[in-house]
Structures are given as C-alpha cells and as structure tokens.
Design brief:
disulfide bond; two-stranded antiparallel ribbon; single chain; hydrolase; 7 strands; SEST-like; alpha/beta; GDSL-like Lipase/Acylhydrolase family protein; Rossmann fold; SGNH_hydro
C-alpha cells in the first residue's frame, strides 16, 4: 500500500536507524518446501517491501524495501538457487509492467524479473490502486470532527454509491490480467497471491489512539475484507493459490499493544511505516506463505 508524502520526508531521518540488519527469525511452516524451488520472485507493494523495517536495502533506496520482509524471511527457509525481491513501496498494478519512479531512482518493471525457469512467485498488489492507505489518512482527519459517527463512510457514499467499492470492482479485471501475464512469463511457477493483513478490529476501534471514528471502523474493515475477497476471487479464477493473511491476524490489528500487533498504527511503536506491517507481521506472513507451500507440496 502507499507510503505517504510525510513518510518520504522523514525517510532521510529514519534511514540511519534502519540500515543495520537484525537477526531474522526463520518462519515456521515452510520446512516441507525447503529446497523445492530453484528461482523465487517476489512482486508487490509496500505490504511486501516492508518500509522502515531494519535493514533497508538500497536497490533502489526509494522502494523502502527491507531485508526482513516476508519474501526475504521465506527465502532464508526455502533456500532457492536464485531469489529476486523486486517489491516496491507505492507500487500499483501498472508498475508490474512499467518502471516505477521512486525517491532517488527508479524501480524496473517488476515482471522483468520473471523468466521461464522461475518456479515460485508471490504477489501482493492492488491496495494502492484502490487507494486504501490514503483513505485511512483522510478518515483519520474526518474523525476529529465526529469521533463517534461515521464521517468517512458518509463522504465516500454520497449519492448512494460507494466510491471505494467501485474502485475495488474496477481493479478486479486488472488484477486478473496481471495474473494471466505472470503465468505466461513463468509457466512452470507456483503462483501465490498474498492478501493484506487485518488493519482494524471488527468494531469500535481505539479512538483517539488510532483516530478512526467509531462508526467508520466496521465500514473500513468491511472494505478491506472486500479487497482481500477480490484478490482471492481473481486468484481462483486464474488457477493460482491465495494466502489468507486477514483471518489469522484477528487480534493483531493496529489497536493492539506493542508486541501483539502485526500492523503499526498512525504513530508506530516499532520500526515500520504507519499502517503497515512491522517485523512481527512480516514473520507471520512468511509463516503463512510457507504453510501454504507445504500444503501444495504435500
């Protein structure tokens, strides 16, 4: 999902504290698939890249790509002969096939890393096409004037049409076309679409700690379920796998205590971007993907 302009401005200040890699735990659940893959390519946006999670890679610096994101943790366990993590913060579906301009550089088209010998692909993208994280930011501002109402829902459903639902529906065929292209470029690969971790609790929230109006919490959570549901449906239609990270992350949302939550709030308490997975979240996703691969292989 998108990294805001504010994050770009503070990046220079934070990078000094995030360039030293920490010892990364090996995700459970992938043992059965270890050694089974020769070339693993990870595609995706910031929920894959891991902005501000130490240590941050420099290739390019503007992608805010961590060497402890879930693809990197998974690759440590799988030990493929070749591993390419080309995920990039801010990526949209178009950036899979075209260069992405980022701070101090450019990320090449992500699908350019796919070759006929690629035998594992993970992909997590479309959140930025829908604009989910910027929507959360505007909803946070709206909550100040009506903390117990649903100002965000009101704003996006003027006239009886939910504009955010429309965006998800419009993104669906583009996601389907992307999966078809991936299969064409890597015909032998196991392809897994990885869903987005739960951001909010089912109801009520924790305003003002996370400034989302009480009535908007269920609305936004429902939209995230719809987004993940779209990804699952497109994966099924394309004949590829889907990894559900939403359901296993109940009780791990932004309102939980440090050490429990897998996604940081608007004011992070661990090295990670606001409203993005932290290191614990990345470890959890790596384990879920590994478990899915074990199930496929068995």
């Amino acid at each position: 999902m998108a990294v805001s302009a504010l994050l770009r401005r503070v990046f220079v200040l934070l990078i000094a504290t995030t360039t030293t890699a920490l010892a990364a735990p090996v995700p459970a659940g992938a043992a059965g698939a270890a050694g089974a893959f020769q070339k693993y390519v990870a595609l995706g946006d910031s929920f894959t890249a891991g902005p501000f999670i130490p240590g941050q890679r420099m290739d390019p610096i503007g992608c805010l790509r961590s060497d402890r994101n879930y693809p990197s943790l998974l690759a440590k366990q799988l030990a493929p002969a070749k591993f390419a993590d080309v995920s990039c913060s801010g990526a949209v579906i178009d950036d899979m096939t075209a260069p992405q301009k980022v701070l101090l550089g450019e990320n090449p088209p992500q699908l350019g890393s796919l070759t006929p010998d690629t035998d594992l692909v993970t992909v997590s993208v479309s959140g930025n096409d829908v604009g989910f994280v910027p929507v959360l930011a505007t909803c946070a501002l709206a909550s100040v004037r009506d903390p117990f109402g649903h100002p965000c829902k009101d704003e996006h459903t003027v006239g009886g049409t939910d504009k955010l639902v429309q965006r998800i529906e419009q993104t669906a065929p583009r996601m389907g076309a992307l999966l078809a292209t991936i299969k064409q470029k890597a015909p032998k690969a196991k392809v897994l679409v990885v869903g987005y971790l739960r951001l909010l609790p089912p109801v009520n929230g924790c305003w003002p700690l996370v400034p989302i109006a009480r009535g908007d919490v269920a609305y936004l959570d429902g939209l995230q379920q719809r987004l993940n549901g779209m990804l699952a449906a497109q994966a099924t239609s394309a004949g590829v796998g889907y990894v559900d990270t939403y359901a296993p992350s109940i009780g791990r949302d932004v309102c939980q205590l440090p050490g429990t939550k897998w996604v940081e709030g608007l004011v992070p308490t661990a090295p990670a971007a606001p409203v993005h997975p932290n290191a614990a979240g990345m470890t959890a996703v790596a384990a879920l993907v590994g478990k899915a691969l074990t199930s496929i292989s068995s």
